[in-house]
Specification:
single chain, 378 residues, Aspartate Aminotransferase, domain 1, Aspartate Aminotransferase, domain 2, 7-stranded mixed sheet, 3-stranded antiparallel sheet, 13 helices, globular, binds pyridoxal-5'-phosphate
């Protein structure tokens, strides 16, 4: 129904904008920080709380079944098997589960432009780390990485898109040189903006949260663990619902759930999971290819406007490495950010200046208004 409704519309994007109440009030280009939720996501969560109020645990079985449907959707969204998907509360939580498996498995190659959610869980566990420095415009060249891949390196840890530069790593190319190393991807800044296929990209572990490009609000997340590694590695963190049959209430033994679900330690965060499910439905109905194309059209428009104003863009312009994030340089990003926010224009002060991160429902007209305001301030 959802698909049919959307694709029969004459103007897909202008119809879609109506689902984003934030467009009534603000120029919102801060999806790399936290995105708004579109109407169907809000409705899914509202429905859950109505059921919680009216039915409480009479609804338990219905919610468990709905959770499993979301697991199937999340798996399909990234080319995984549902048994490889677990729901988390954040990227940080998911990354901790990965680090607890791999931190003692040899050296970890990462880079200095990561968001600390990627790296801190490994550093805390005293993993041996090698840090690649990004080059100009935040580029992390694979040619360089190839030359430093020694046999001691067992894990490659990277973001799909870097939060402070907008550099998008070519994961398919990276996987072609990784050999038998674990590829751990923090997908947070690309999840919901660019298609991801864990099989094609040979990703071993993928973590993301729900509240940025996925448009599902705070409190949710997804962790993908390849089946082979679920079979090989036992978690260090467990809960009563890590058991194959939690209803056994066995205090003395734990027969571990063979699936990734073993990481859902206690009772589920149903609203967070249902929000993720509704967001995945929403993005899938539009089409991830359409979404990423639209984001690149919008950032093209933005970059052209910045060029015309003589503002220096600090993000890579290489088509394969562009993302939804454009950073431009500013002498005093904090002051500029404050002025923009005071005008109802939401961006972030990050990296070498100001981070602008439009999503598919934004328009050239909105970016034009942003550029006009910027002109006044610089
Ligand atoms: C790449 C990246 N990972 C993780 C996070 C934070 O994720 P969480 O709060 O879910 O741990 C951010 C936030 O900006 C980020 O940019």
């Amino acid at each position: 129904m959802f698909l049919g409704t959307y694709f029969s519309m004459s103007s897909l994007w202008s119809q879609i904008r109506k689902d984003f109440l934030i467009t009534d009030k603000y120029l919102y280009f801060d999806h790399a920080a936290g995105g708004p939720v579109p109407r169907p996501v809000r409705e899914a969560v509202e429905q859950y709380y109505r059921e919680q109020a009216e039915e409480a645990d009479f609804a338990w079985m219905k919610w468990v079944q709905r959770r499993e449907e979301v697991r199937q959707k999340a798996a399909r969204f990234i080319g995984a098997d549902p048994s490889e998907i677990t729901f988390t509360s954040s990227t940080s939580q998911g990354m901790n589960y990965v680090a607890e498996l791999l931190a003692s498995q040899g050296t970890v190659l990462t880079n200095t432009s990561e968001f600390p959610s990627s790296t801190v869980p490994w550093v805390w566990r005293k993993a041996k780390m090698i840090w690649q420095e990004p080059e100009k415009n935040g580029v992390l060249p694979l040619s360089h990485l190839k030359t430093i891949l020694t046999p001691e390196i067992k894990t490659i840890l990277t973001s799909f898109v870097q939060y402070a530069t907008g550099f998008r790593q070519d994961l398919a190319k990276l996987s072609a040189i990784k050999e038998n190393r674990f590829l751990v991807v923090n997908a947070t800044q690309g999840f919901g903006a660019f298609p991801i296929d864990v099989q094609e990209m040979k990703i071993d572990f993928l973590v993301t949260n729900s509240y940025k490009w996925l448009l599902a609000g705070y409190g949710g997340g997804i962790l993908y663990l390849r089946k082979a590694w679920l079979e090989k590695f036992a978690p260090q963190t467990v809960g009563w619902r890590s058991a194959a049959d939690p209803e056994k209430m066995d205090n003395r033994h734990l027969e571990l759930n063979p699936d990734a679900m073993r990481y859902e330690l206690g009772c589920p965060n149903f609203p967070g999971i249902f929000a993720v499910g509704a967001a995945i439905d929403y993005l899938t109905a539009i089409g991830m290819d359409k979404i990423s194309k639209r984001i690149l059209e919008l950032t093209d428009f933005l970059i052209q406007g910045l060029d015309q104003m003589g503002v220096e863009v600090a993000s890579s312009r290489e088509p394969a490495h562009r993302s939804g994030i454009v950073i431009f340089k500013s002498q005093d990003p904090k002051t500029l950010w404050k002025k923009l926010m005071a005008e109802g224009i939401c961006v972030s002060a990050r990296g070498e200046g100001i981070r602008v991160a439009p999503h598919f429902y934004n328009t050239e007209e909105e970016l034009g208004r942003f550029l006009k305001a910027l002109k006044r301030f610089i």
